[in-house]
Every structure is written in structure tokens, then in C-alpha cells.
């Protein structure tokens, strides 16, 4: 039996503050906006909210470039607003998880300003430097500067500094104990306010091999293997756990979990006292090809991870976040006749797997990719930098733009769709990024009234999970794993068994269940179609993108 924990039983709702609700008409979502929607959050039945970074930032990477870890981004509001938000969530029994961006700061952080002022500055070693007299540094790939080097030359001190992400996100030097202690103090500052959890952004990259050895040709295609799980990572996590985490009743999630199952276990194994749950990228990396993906790959990945974590460790379960496209556009089918069904099917999958659901805001409405035609509509530094480099190389710009419609991070960052009024009720001003034109029908007001909407389905699905410990802790067993169309699995806890049947295709057909599953007296718990399910013996008649959940005994 697994040890129970609140964070295993919780449904986490990822809220992207910049795009959720604007209260002051500047076109940017803010904390007061979230406060005005607390009752909406409560109505969903979720247990915790994970907020993307809300700290002071020049927003080169939408808050993932922090210039002051102890203050609120001015577009988002003030510390008073934060305290009110936390209190409002807690009044409604919703927990709050903050995003800790500790691999890098902004280049506008005071530490970096000091560090780059002179080679002898007290903050110099808060970052990684390479003096020019040593020649060119060993090349390092930069995530957001595809063809450029992660070492950027800085003339003031005639040195290069390291930035795995954008030039405005210099990597912090974790090998420096002073820096680490400063970070731990900052974490305590937020935890003492009573927040309930931490998402550790890109934490797998913090420890670097500072001999800066040369990596083999093509290493950037397997980047986590080279950048992730550096030599002292576990030492730092143990230290952080001892100094900070263990002093509070909180949950911690490792964003990025190395490149193997063993790496992930090493981060979250209970006995090691480091972090609680692994948010790995293997599922998210399936389905990045606009040509589609194989359901069998998805099933195998879910199954492999579940098996590996069946006894020990714990996983986050998700199909979308602010770094990937909308789940319905990626794993479902966002054409009008299938969008609603496939979106509900994916919700069913997330809510019936073992692991803690991390559900991305807007997916409960069935929001889909916006698919911009024009580069000027994009706001994401990853898309814009890649576009520039393709243009400079006279690459295939059209092919790039087509692909962005499918994969750009901006697809999940468009404003939340509250109602059918202008700008979907997100702002009275000009939104920082365009609103998806489908907001006239895909919005909270329209869906809240409709018993058959995605939103209504989501609430029922959350309620089912919350009332079914078997969906949290029960064993997972997959059937017919080679079927290209159907994902069929059970969750079992003692006498209790739940059967989930998901048709990942536009076809309608009769599906023969494995003979070990007996549904003669099964009760339908969820059905994403408004019909009575037809089954004869052990054959289930499935409609396109149909999702069914049965209580088997
Ligand atoms: O993303 C980290 C992240 O996803 C990378 O570590 C990943 O390995 C890489 O993008 C390859 O796909 C987080 C945030 O979620 C993202 O929004 C930020 O831009 C990034 O960190 C930098 O802080």
C-alpha cells in the first residue's frame, strides 16, 4: 500500500497569470484578476493552483527571467495583492504552488548587475564566467538561440557569461555556497507566508560540470543527457531539503526529471529526502510532429512510467502546459465536429491515471491552438528567435510558420475565454496577445449553462477522481496495448475496479474487450457522449473519440 499524502490526492490546476484575467485594462492578466475569479476556481473542485512566475521581471521570457525574487511583477500587482490572493485561496481550501526559477535570473537582477560590473565584484561568482584571455569558451547550445552560443560576450569585463536560455537569463552559479544560501533564504521568505508547494523550474540543469569539457557532435539533440542531472545536483537538493523543504508541510515538483527512469527516481524517491514528484517530459515529447503521433507510443510511455513508479516515487500527469500546444490540438482533434469529444476524452485520461493531475487552464473549456499566420502576432521569445535565425540563414520560412501553428508555446498562452463579450471578457484594454476567435462559443459563461459542455464534464471528472481513491492509488493495468485506436486500462484497489476505454480515432466500431474484463454488471460512471452506452457481451460499440469510464465491480 502506498503512503497517503495530500499532494498525491490533489488535482492541481495550472494557472497562467498573464493570460487569466486582467483587472485594470492594461491588457495583461494580474493578481486582482485572479482574485475576482476565485469562485470560478472553487467551482472546478480543484485542490491546488500552480501559478507561473509572478515575481518582478522584465518579461523577456514571460516571468521566467526574474529581476527580484522577493517582489511581485508590477504588471501583476503588489505584495498586498499576493497576500490577499493567498488568503482568498486558503479560505476556499485551495492550496498555492509557486514557480521557483533557480537555474537562472534576469540580467536585470541586482546580482547580475553587480557581477558584471567588475571581475572582482563580490557577486561575480553568482554566475558563470569565461575570461576572454582563455580564448573562446567550449561551445554550449542555448535553448532559445538555436544557432547561437549559450556563452555571451560582455565587454565591460572582457568575459563571456553562460545562458542556457535567453541572453537575458544568465545561469546562476550553484557551485557557490553564498548563492545557494541566498536562494534558500528567499524560498523561506515565500514559505513563511504559508504557500503550499514549489515547482522547481528547469532544476535538473542547475549543477554544471565547470571543467566545461567538449561535448560530442550533435549533443544538443540529447540535451537533457548532457545538461541535466549535473555532478552536484543531488548534494544541492539534499541541502535544500534539510535547510528549507523539510521545515514545511509542502509539496515539491521537479520540472524535468533527467533522461532515464533512474534519474527521475533519484529525484523523488521518498528515502532520499529530496523532492516529491517528477514532472518528466517523455509524454510531452510525443506528438510534436504536425503529421501526428502513434497512440501506441503514448500508451507505452504512460505504461512504462507507471510500472516504474508503481511501488515508489510519484509522478505528475499532464498533457499540456505553457510550453507546449493545446492538448486538444496536439493529442486530440480540434476540427469542429471532434473538438468537444476529443477534449473530454483527454480530460478523462488525465483524471484516471495514477499520479497527480496537473491540468492546464483553458483545457477545461476545450480551448484549442490559435494558429497565427503572421510572425507579428507571436510574443514568445522561443518562436521569435527561431524565426530570426531561419530568416538569416534563408531557411524555409513558410515551413517554419506552418510548424509554429502546431507547436508554438503561444498556442497555450492566449487569453482565457470567460464570455462572448469583446476580448472574451479577459480585458477591457488591448490584450497582450490575441484572443482565439472561437471564444464566442468556447467560453465559461456558455459552457457553465450547458450540461454537455467540456466544462461540465471536467467538473464531473474532477469530482469522480476526488471521490475515488482507487483512481489515485489503485494499480494500473493496460489491455490491448498494440491497438492503434483504443486505450483501454483498469485501475484496481482490492475489490474495486474501474475500467477506462478511450477511442483515440474518428472511427466508429465495435470493440471486443479483453476476456478477463467482465462488464455484464458494470455501471457507466462517465461517458463523453450523451447516449446510453451500447454493449453486447464484452463488445462495446464506440463512437468517434468516445470516452467511457465503468465501475466494474
Ligand atoms: O522550461 C524548462 C524546459 O522545458 C526546458 O528545460 C526544456 O528542457 C527545454 O525547453 C527543451 O524542450 C521552463 C519553463 O517552463 C519555460 O517556460 C521557461 O522558458 C524555461 O524553463 C526557462 O525558465
UniProtKB/TrEMBL annotation:
A Pfam family recorded for this sequence: Alpha-amylase
UniProt keywords, alphabetically: Glycosidase, Hydrolase
Example of a GO MF term: alpha-amylase activity
Cited CDD domains: AmyAc_SI_OligoGlu_DGase (cd11333)
SMART domains documented for this protein: Aamy
InterPro entries, A to Z: GH, GH13_cat_dom, Glyco_hydro_b, O16G_dom_2, SusG-like_C
PANTHER family linked: ALPHA-AMYLASE FAMILY MEMBER, NEUTRAL AND BASIC AMINO ACID TRANSPORT PROTEIN RBAT
UniProt-recorded name of the protein: Alpha-glucosidase
Organism of origin: Pedobacter agri
Lineage of the species this protein comes from: Bacteria, Pseudomonadati, Bacteroidota, Sphingobacteriia, Sphingobacteriales
